[in-house]
Amino acid sequence: MSSTPRSQSVRGKNKVIIEKLTYETEILHRDLITVNLQYSHLFWAYYHMLATVRLLNLPGAPPGPYPASPPPPGEEPSPSQIPPMPMVPLPFALPVPPPPSPATPNTN
Fold this sequence. Notes:
By secondary structure, the protein is mostly helical. It has a domain at 5-68. It has one helix and no strands. It is flat, with a radius of gyration of 27 Å. The termini are far apart. Residues 60-108 are annotated as: Disordered.
C-alpha cells in the first residue's frame, strides 16, 4: 500500500504537532520543578520562622517540634512526618476595604 501525498502531509503535520507538544511538556516540567523548589524554600523559611518564635517564647508561638534544618535533597520527609502548619496570628490588622456606597439614582 503506497502513501499518498495527503497521508504524507498529515503525518508531517502530526510529527510537527508531537514535537511541539513534547517541547512544551518539557518546558512545563522544568517550570513545575522550579516552582516546587521555590515552594520548598518558602516552606522551610516559614518553618524556621515558627521555630525561632517558639525558641524565643514570643507571644503567639505555636506548640510543636520543629526540625533544625531542612533535609538534604532527595531525602524529603513523608507527609506523615511533617506536623500540620499552625496558623500564627499576624502582629498587625489587615486593612478592611470600605463597604460599597449605595447606588444613587441618576437624575440627569
